[in-house]
Hints:
9 helices, 2 domains, 187 residues, Arc Repressor Mutant, subunit A, single chain, mainly alpha
Amino acid sequence: MSLRDAAATRRRILEHARRQFAGHGYTAVTVKGVADAAGVSPNLITRYFGGKDGLFLAATQVEIPVETSFDGDLSTLGARLAANIVQRWFGGPGQDPLLVLQRAAGERPEAAEALAAFLDTNSLEPLYRYLRDSGLDDGDARDRAAAIDAFVLGVSTRRRVLRSGLGEPAELQAWLGATIQRLADGE
């Protein structure tokens, strides 16, 4: 197998693993099930990832560029964040590594730790810095960032983990944007 074929096979395995972990959680997913869905031998998953734990860790590597959400005036922060959030939630059903981590957080301590570390590094801290750099004092910036972070995580859990519908994407985006903006403004 060429390096190009191996890389394509690895990506295909990860795509199916993300879909299955996101849809069913860690416990219900099997190496054989992922292998069958990806059209490969379970031995290949063991060779590439070392087994189910390694596959899970690889499938939950999260890289999300959040910088664009923080480019602009504080008065439009809610709209920018909401647009990025709704795009992520509706853009790739079942394949979002954050959803995989969110669903597995109750089953796997390392998933809970990975989710918390990701949110601290890629959401809470950049949001805090943005709010502070927008003129809020340190304490206000931390409190508002924490409120926005908790709100978005709560809505995400309700909608994506508990699978409780929260409306159409456009309605959800408008509601999220307005609520996030109120939290950012301290209302």
